[in-house]
Fold this protein.
Amino acid sequence: MLYWDQEKECMPREILLDLQLRRLKEAVYRVYTFVPAYRAKFDAAGIKPDDINTLEDLKQLPFTTKQDLRDNYPFSLFAVPMSEVVRIHSSSGTTGKPTVVGYTRKDLDIWSELMARALTSASGTKRSVIQNAYGYGLFTGGLGVHYGAERIGASVIPSSGGNTKRQIMLMQDFGTTHLTCTPSYALFMAEVMGEMGIKPSDLKLQAGIFGAEPWSENMRREIENKLGIKAFDIYGLSEIIGPGVAIECTAKQGLHIAEDHFLAEIIDPITEEVLPDGALGELVITAMTKEALPLIRYRTRDLTTLNREQCECGRTHVRMEKVLGRSDDMVIIRGVNVFPSMVESVLLNIPGVEPHYLLIVERIGNLDELEVQVEVSEVIFSDEIRKLESLGRRITKELESALGVAVKVRLVEPKTIARSEGKAKRVFDNRNI
Amino acid sequence: MAKQISVFLENKSGRLAHVTRVLGDAGINIRALSIADTSDFGILRLIVNDPVKAYKILKEAGFTVSETEVIAVRMPDSPGGLASVLDQMSEENLNIEYLYAFLGMTGNDALVVFKVEDFQKAKVAFETKQIKFLDEQELYQL
């Protein structure tokens, strides 16, 4: 099956734009009427709902940030009474107060529809056996994928994250065809499979739908080769709805954003100016149809580009490029922006180098130093110092030319970099600034 | 001809102790060893009584390990013994990657482990020059 909902996914642009304008106006009216924090923001900016008459007028509206969610912890941004809220999800809150999101029954229905579109786009059907290894619980990944997978009628294995050997046993015994988890966990599973002596040909796995963290094209190749599958990128964030905001199609030329529900813009993260299509910047999303938590111009912190050209798959919705990184994960070293995904890309281009790496930033004296730790696999190991040193120099040279900053490469023993069953932590910034 | 086990070690305290403990617990006897090091990491090279088993258990313990072909050369344990072997190797244009001495001795002879650039060439040259080297079984049973 090509599409889950052809009418909406392939809607002619002019009809889609009409629909967006109508929905945007409704959303602005609702937040202004029902959410005091939004009314205050709009009033401060001198904007009334009636001022929004074209999609261009979106630019006049103030942004919403993660800080706004924290300031209104837990439920003050909700636009419906709690009696209408049927589900609550929340971030882990490791960097401060958690951000809380709510859903009405209709929100959950839309979310399941969007996930159904996403899974269908990534080759899922009612005949698929989908093993969902995203964590179940407060995190939106688990339940979001789960209900979408049920919606398309697939057989769902709600394995959640962790217990990797059991995951692999389930995969073997239940004939899993589709795996959903973070890309770093998929790679870890491949590694454990190797240790257990299980080959991709022993499994029925055909495809994986991976997201919740940025990953490079090279990482995709690595996962596809090691697991013998097609790997699709899925994008989402709990503040907007969870997984299913955008999904790759088989063309793999970007991720289609569900534009009948979400308005996407790219802005310069510093000047906050809206950038033209094709320019790299921060993705900003307006969740027009959300009832419980309709966010206006939410700053995702994810860096990407937009492409409105018609896709060969037939979908008309705008495509976002694979996320290059999060502006939070970005480290600025001597004025240069460095993303973990850039490091990953370089490493995976060097034969035998595994994508297990860490970026450690220290300030020594007044100078920032970037150390990249790389695990020495058996493939690149040599009993001769000069060969290992020349490998170290090659990695250093390639990283420095890709990143534009000085890098110190440290070769470390295998398995010393922590493996992740969820989102991988790639950066340790030890600078006290 | 002999198999050397090479192990990648980070330059951190306790790593060498860990490798030797793993080998000791498995009843592996180290016959010769050398460490080449840089500021960040080192390579431990070992001749042991059972290289197949040593490779397996070190790999299971999570180390990066490889097997390398080396030659254990027997030479008189007297002044000039090594020099004479090196002279002959030089005459045959054999390039040496590294070498290290064996812990024990055999009678009046000393043993030195050589890693050469071209293993086959060295074998032929040693035979023409009548340089004595130990076969695998002889070496492991020392």
